[in-house]
Amino acid sequence: MSSDIESAVGGGKPFSIGSVIGETFSLYGGNFLKFTVTGILIYVPVLAIMVATMGMAAVTGSGAFDPNSAIADPGAIGAMMTGLVTSMFFMLLAFSVGSGAITYGAIESKSGNDVGLGAMIGRALVKIIPLVLASIVMTVLIGIGMIFLIIPGIIIALMLIVTWPVILAEGLGPIEALGRSRELTKGHKWGIFGGYLVFYIISMIIQLVLIMVSIALGEIGALIGTLLSYAILLALSSTFFASLYTNLRESKEGVSIEQMAAVFE
């Protein structure tokens, strides 16, 4: 596994998943306000639609836990899950645009360029069709894989994890981007899996704390907490994708971050 986590395949710098994780939090910390606000702006209309069509409880899970006893209410949790399933398309759309915007911002930030929030979202909107189509195909493929004993679904997810950065930085269509992601992640899946697991656990802890604290503040507090948790998770995951993509290319192909960012000029 060690050769999978740290290796140089194309004469570039050694690939280290630890460096990817460290860089993820460094980039997010340096762009915390901009990336988080991007996530908030992306999810506000989605949550508004969800609240209008399904109600506050289904969106926020308010009432799912008794704040005093922390005992779960199966009915409220069921309503929340039903709400999330029925709003899957809107969530997918928001994640595609938000991930594209923040990925672009993260790559530019790593190269030393400072791009504004409007430019980030604008770049994602230009690529909205391939981003959304790729997300749909990925969701279907991963879902099919999950049906077959889960493991194939995880493998597919790891193979396709840098699809969004590929679309943003290389201008490929959705199908070509999926193949390109598979090519870049080849030989590093164990490292990526371990790194993403660490990142995911940290993100889930942050999300859970935000939601539990906000639920205790009532429905409005729960809605704000849900919005913040979505925004932060989007920002962190997208920054991780960008960092992983740039590190893979630096390692496998010897391409510098300046060369990668030059395509945006």
Feature tags:
single chain, 265 residues, mainly alpha, 78% helix, globular, disordered N terminus
Could you walk me through the main structural features you see in this protein, from its secondary elements to its overall organization?
The protein has about 260 residues and is an all-alpha fold. It has a domain at about 15-55 and about 75-125 and about 185-265. The protein has helices spanning about 1-5, 15-30, 30-55, 55-60, 75-85, 90-110, 115-125, 130-145, 150-160, 165-170, 175-185, 190-215, 220-250, 255-260. The longest helix has about 35 residues, at about 220-250.
Topology diagram in text:
Blueprint lengths: L1 H4 L11 H14 L1 H23 L1 H5 L13 H13 L1 H23 L6 H10 L1 H20 L3 H9 L3 H8 L3 H12 L3 H27 L3 H34 L4 H5 L4
Helix pairs in contact: 2-12, 2-13, 3-6, 3-13, 6-7, 6-8, 6-10, 6-13, 8-9, 8-11, 10-11, 12-13
What's the shape?
Answer: globular
* Count of helical regions: 14
Which sequence of SSEs, written as H and E, runs from N to C?
Answer: HHHHHHHHHHHHHH
Largest sheet: none
**Secondary structure: number of strands:** 0
Describe this structure in a few short sentences.
With 265 residues, the chain is mostly helical.
